[in-house]
């Protein structure tokens, strides 16, 4: 489960700056899902926060960094290894999730079922 919280080597190599992707569009396996609102490289909990806008009524979803499969800086897009439904069904983003054991376990239980 630890690798889900790390950006893939193909993305993180070469001086990748997670702050640079804030504002990028996010594409799921089956289409657009929102924009990156926040990005983090905190040890053992790197993630992006996706603002889904009106798509699922303004919800924000925290997606572990390991789910990010591609970044295109020219087009300002990020692709994730999830479908729209998988994003929609993900737990709501909670800003203090990393300090709350129950929230952390909830995120890990949801994402662990995909076997990344």
Describe the structure.
The chain has helices at residues 9-12, 84-89, 101-112, and strands spanning 25-28, 31-40, 47-51, 60-64, 68-72, 77-80. By secondary structure, the protein is an alpha+beta fold. The termini are close together. The model has no long low-confidence stretch (mean pLDDT 86). A hairpin with a 2-residue loop joins β1 (25-28) and β2.
Which helices and strands, and how do they pair?
Elements: H1 9-12, E1 25-28, E2 31-40, E3 47-51, E4 60-64, E5 68-72, E6 77-80, H2 84-89, H3 101-112
Parallel strand pairs: 1-6
Antiparallel strand pairs: 1-2, 2-3, 3-4, 5-6
Question: Can you summarize this structure?
Answer:
This protein has helices at residues 9-12, 84-89, 101-112; strands at residues 25-28, 31-40, 47-51, 60-64, 68-72, 77-80.
The main β sheet shows up as: 6 strands, mixed
Q: What is the approximate shape?
A: globular
What's the total helix number? 3
Structural class, please?
Answer: alpha+beta
Average pLDDT, to the nearest integer?
A: 86
Q: What is the H-and-E element order?
A: HEEEEEEHH
Fraction in helix: 10-25%
Please give a handful of descriptors for the protein shown.
alpha+beta; 116 residues; 28% strand
């Amino acid at each position: 489960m630890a690798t889900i919280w790390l950006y893939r080597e193909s993305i993180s190599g070469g001086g990748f700056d997670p702050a640079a992707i804030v504002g990028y569009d996010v594409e799921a396996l089956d289409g657009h899902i929102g924009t990156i609102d926040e990005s983090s490289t905190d040890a053992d909990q790197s993630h992006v926060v996706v603002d889904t806008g009106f798509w699922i009524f303004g919800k924000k979803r925290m997606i572990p960094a390991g789910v990010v499969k591609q970044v295109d800086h020219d087009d300002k897009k990020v692709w994730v290894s999830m479908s729209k439904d998988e994003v929609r069904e993900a737990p709501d983003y909670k800003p203090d999730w990393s300090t709350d054991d129950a929230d952390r376990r909830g995120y890990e239980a949801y994402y662990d079922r995909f076997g990344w």
